[in-house]
Amino acid sequence: MNWISEVVRPRIKTLFKRESPDNLWIKCPDTGQVVFHKDVEANLWVIPGSNHHLRLTATQRLKQIFDEGTWLDVPLPDAPVDPLKFRDEKRYIDRLKDARTKTGQQDAFKIGFGRVDELPMTVAVQDFAFMGGSLGMAAGEAFIKGAETALDKRTPYLLFAASGGARMQEGILSLMQMPRTTVMVRRLREARLPYIVVLTNPTTGGVTASYAMLGDVHLAEPGALIGFAGPRVIEQTIREKLPDGFQRAEYLRDHGMVDMVVHRHDLKETVARLARLLTKAEPGPVRSERPSHEGEPLEAA
Q: Residue 109's closest CA among 71, 63, 61, 64?
């Protein structure tokens, strides 16, 4: 046997092969900078070099805003599923199933109740990962449930808005959520409870045309796209070039549409300070309730 020509290759092919996870690195959408995943996570999902604020899931938002990352889940009411039997390239009910599998949520809203810097607060979060955070009947019912919880507990109501607008698959039933949510904002105002809105990237369409722009105070994350129609649609309509940074958080702040642009690191402290100012409250425990393990149902606590 000629050992040079008849050599037997080892059968263990992966002996010296190193496996690396797919999400080891994150590429900045603004600069193309590649950053280590763990560094971005430790920085609250903000790219360290460019300061680009990445989108967060509803659960990540609640973990960041509540003390010790714990809260009580507010059970959300059921809403009709696919009332119009809508179908385009795909059945609407199938799109809902895919979104629920992807996000682990029933719809685009998640509501939590707990403490923010020791101040009792009800927090509603829209998840853009669920069909673009679109406003449908389920999302409208969730917003209303959150407002009712704030009224019942006598707490400020904090909303993190992130949406592409109304959900077209529900037609007029989706658009009807705009006046319904507006009525709930009016009830909060009559009860003299603060309604604070944090506009995140993006907040557009029917959400901007209703409850997202009705807050007592409007905060925005840096670089967030905020508006009704998108910049490309506006340019095609008026046939003019828009100014640099048009519809971004900083532009809207400079033109009086947003009160403050707040970095994610400072958001919790800013929200708590505003809530205390508006309620004339001092730091303290959450009445008789207690923050429980992450996501424990409010009724079970």
A: 61
pLDDT, tens only, 44-65: 999 998 999 999 999 999 999 9
Other C-beta atoms closer than 10 Å to the C-beta of 30 total 12
**Predicted pLDDT at 230:** 85
CB 230 within 8 A of CB 203: no
Q: At what angle do helices 264-279 and 58-65 cross, to 10 degrees?
A: 60
185 within 8 A of 147, measured Cβ to Cβ: yes
Q: Packing angle between helix 137-153 and helix 177-190, nearest 10 degrees?
A: 10
Compute the distance between CA of residue 115 and CA of residue 41 in angstroms, rounded to an integer.
Answer: 23
In tens, the pLDDT along 205-255 reads 999 999 999 999 999 999 999 999 988 899 999 999 999 899 999 999 999
Q: What is the CATH class of 55-300? A: alpha beta
Domain boundaries, the chain: 10-54, 55-300
Which 8-state DSSP code applies to residue 257? S
